Amino acid sequence: MIQELMNAGIQIALALLVVFLVWLIFARKRSGFLKFAGLHGAPLKAMGIALIAALIFAPLTIAMFMLPGLADAATGPDTVAGRVQALGITPETIAIVLIIAFLKTSGSEEILFRGLIAKRLIAWLGFGVGNTIHALIFASIHLLIFVAPGGPAFDPVLAAALMGVGFTGGWVMAWINEKRADGSIAPSWLMHGLTNTIAYPVLAFL
């Protein structure tokens, strides 16, 4: 657990460093760093929308990873679900799931994807085009599962499922942030982290 916490801290620090350097070089005269990166509070209504969205996307994510070819990759020994499957539900595994879901995965990814990539593309290209390109980039990252050690062989149906869920989730998260939360990445962090928190243990025992 301590190791996972350290790993999560390193990933978040690196993500923050990247965003900070971009802000320092290109935007420090126009905006404060916290506002630039979306590192501020969000209205409760926006957090509520994110909560509802997580409850919708968690079953979609679970269903996607139950597809033949993805199920084994999602529950392998080196995955979060695989570790939960092996260790069972204990206070330690619950803590590990929360650390990975809310810090290691969603923490660093939200800082980079919604706090940097989405914001900059939307600022340059407008919300519709910018958010669509950002969501395509976010979805494409999920295709790396096909080249990861122990990952499934490439399959166009599986790739389409990963792209579809990843694109829709990414687009919705940025929409909530930018249109309902004054640019805060708190809603997308909640949605992303909660979706993963629900999905990991469910996949472990299906």
Automatic annotation (TrEMBL):
Transmembrane segments: 6-26, 47-71, 83-103, 124-145, 157-176
Highest taxon of source: Bacteria
Domain CAAX prenyl protease 2/Lysostaphin resistance protein A-like: 94-198
Any Pfam family: Rce1-like
EC id: 3.4.-.-
Keyword list, A-Z: Hydrolase, Membrane, Transmembrane, Transmembrane helix
Keyword hit for Metal-binding: no
Enzyme class: hydrolase
Protein name per Swiss-Prot or TrEMBL: CPBP family intramembrane glutamic endopeptidase
